[in-house]
Structure formats: structure tokens, C-alpha cells
Amino acid sequence: MTDVGASLELDSIVHEASERAGGISDLGPGPFTDPLQLAVDSLESDGRLNPIGRMIARERMIGHTTNRLNYVNDRKRFPGIADERIVKPVFIIGMPRTGTTILHDILAQDPSNRVPLTWEAMFPSPPPEAATFHTDPRIAACAATFPSVELQIPAFKAMHPMGAELTQECVTMMGEAMCTPLFHNQFRVPTYEDWVDDGADWSHVYVFHHRQLQHLQWHHHRDRWVLKTGAHLWGLDSLLERYPDARIVFTHRDPVKSMTSYASLTALVRSMGSDTVDPEEVATDWTARLCKILTRGLHVRQTRSYPDAIFYDMFFSDFIRDQFASVAAIYDAFDIPMSDEAAQSMQAFIADNPPGKHGIHRYAPHEFGVVPERVRSEFREYIDYFDLPPE
Asked: Which of 262, 316, 265 is nearest to 290 (CA)?
């Protein structure tokens, strides 16, 4: 039998995760092993992985499984976690590459805002403590995982800065529910992504997401959560069922820019684990998927009323023109008080992080077979609804 490298068999992944979690085996309620099987099957049949890609994929699946085991076990060990209340959480959603990451980083400067940091999302057990939040040894352990990425794909930092103490997206945390579009960004897994797009029950994702927030805030509480990922568009109806008092910042930009930039990011990320990445296939595939998901999210918003939730639309062009003014408008829309300390911290961060600080992310539609007129035609309903001009 030919040695294909790192094992992607479900039993091997679950066994290794259990070993890392100290021998525990309870994955808790809700689906997990079935979608994990779907994910590894798609990695095998669709992924076009090289040996490094197989190792990366195996490690990602083991990591999410280990975290799932620990979340479930910690909840048994510390029953007080279940008493935590999540009140009026702020969610930043929208198209890829619409300024959501830098907006999240700016809002994280307000000491009243609680954001998930990369280190605690990567190593959530035991629950973080306020007293050691910036000295926890898990910070260094998390930071140690980044140099290899920067060496292999140095352009990534210009597209999406990484760091143990930078904000983390909910799309990563969704891996603990084994339902996330993150996997199809990092790897070519269209069969799995078809299920994420059209077959998954997202209510389970938000049940576990709520448990994750309770876990992380148990001993490190702030006034409100500020969370971010465009992946919330996939389950927007389930999000609003779980968090009926959500405050949602919906970011908008010319879809041509979003699709081209996201295709560039995805092709670059996949190249770390595959020698056969087709940029045009990436753009064609993701443009169709994102158009469908964005339209679905728009319809969720249009067809029901959410009396306790508040939506605020933020346009990329306005944000680029004056980032702090956009932030102030968000606070006004959600009736959130802004302290002098918060304003000063956010303004200082903006001044210290001008566009291009980590390099310029350069890309052009023709490099990915993106035809601007065709994209705008596909996204016509969305463009017309928000009156988005071409960039």
C-alpha cells in the first residue's frame, strides 16, 4: 500500500484529539463526527493536497476536535460557565475584504469591548482569566505557530495580519461545530462546502457558539462582545434566533473588489498545501457561492422583523475616508457610550495602522478571470438594494 502521508481518517483524528485532551472523549450534544467525516472525505477526494497540505489539514481537524472536547469537559468541571449571559453582542458581517478585520481591530481598543483573541480561540482550555489575560503562556504557544506561515506565504501578512493577541474571527471558532466556510477557503473541499452552503443546520453552530462565548467570558468579562466574520451570513437567521438582541454591522463594497480580493487571498492560502491551485477556478467557485449566500442573508433581513436587533450598514468607501467617523456612527446607531479612553485608544490605533502598513495587497480581476460586468450582473439585486457604485 502506498504511503500517502498524514492520516485523514476520522478515527485517527478523534483518537489523537482525545490523547491531547487528556483522554476525554465526550464531544457533547449536536452533530460533529458526521460533518468531520464529510470534511475529511472531501479533503481526500477533492483537496489535491501535497504532503504538507495533508499535515496542515490533519492538524486543523485535530485542533478543532481537541478544542471541542475541552469546551465540553470544562463546562462539566466549571458549571458556573452555563450561568453567563450574553447581552447585546455586536456582530460585524459582510462581504470578504470589506474592511471587517481592521474595523474589528479598532473596536477591540475600547476597554469596554470583549473580543476573542487568536490565542484564546486556538487554546481555549482552561477558560482565560482576567488577571493573566496578557501574560498567559498560551500566548507564546500561539505565536510560535505563525513564523512558518509567514515564511511560506510572506504576502499573507499584507492581506490579513496575524498575531496571538490580535482579534480572531468566529469563522475559526465555528470549526468546533465542524461547520464553517473556513475549510473551503484554506483547502479545496467543494463537496463539504456544498453541505455548508445548503445542507447544514446552522442552529447547532450557534448553540455551540453561545457556549464558547460563555466559556471565554466566565472569568474575563467586559460590557459587550464584539465579534466578526462574513461567515455569519451563512446562518444569519440562526444567529438572530440565538441572539435576538444582536447589534449587526453589515459592511458593503463593490462586489468586483470583494470577489477579486477574496480569490487572491484564497488562492494564496491554498497554495501552502497544494501544488495545483487554479486561480480562475477559485474565483468562479467562490463568486457563485458568495452571491447566493449574500442574497440569502439579504432576504433573511428583508422578510422578517427583528424588534430587538439593530442593523447598521457601513460602506467601505466611507470607512476608508474616515475610519473613526465610521466607528462613532456605529456607536451612535447602537446607543453605545464611548468613553474618552476608548476614543483616544481607537484614534491612536488608527494613526498607528495606516493602509499598507504591512505591505500592499495587489491584485487585478483579469488574473482570476473575473469579468467586472458579469460579477455586477450576478450581484445586481445586492448592488441595487444598497446603491453601490463601481470602484
From this structure: 262
Separation CA 375–CA 189 (nearest Å): 23
Backbone phi, then psi, for 230, in 5-degree steps?
Answer: -65, -15
Cβ–Cβ under 8 Å, residues 277 and 285: no
d(CA 244, CA 134): 32
Give the H or E element holding residue 114: strand 113-114
Which helix (DSSP H) or strand (DSSP E) does residue 346 occupy?
Answer: helix 340-352
Instruction: Kindly state the DSSP code that residue 187 receives in the 8-state scheme.
Output: S
Cα separation, 93 vs 96, in Å, equals 9
- 54 Ramachandran zone, left/alpha/beta (phi>0; psi -120 to 50): alpha
Whole-number Å distance between alpha carbons of 346 and 205: 31
What fold is seen in the domain 34-48+88-386? Rossmann fold (3.40.50)
Per-residue pLDDT tens over the stretch 69-126: 999 999 999 999 999 999 999 999 998 889 999 999 999 999 999 999 999 999 999 9
Which residue(s) pair with 114 in the sheet? 225
Rounded Cα–Cα distance for residues 192 and 43 (Å):
8
Grid coordinates given for 342? 476608548
One-letter amino acid of 183: F
- Rg (Cα) of the chain, in Å, rounded? 20
Rounded distance between C-alpha atoms, residue 36 and residue 31, angstroms: 9
**Can you give the pTM of this predicted structure?**
0.94
Residue with cell 477557503: 185
- Report how far residue 322's alpha carbon sits from residue 156's, in angstroms, rounded to the nearest whole number: 25
Peptide bond preceding 389: is omega within 30 degrees of 0, i.e. cis? no
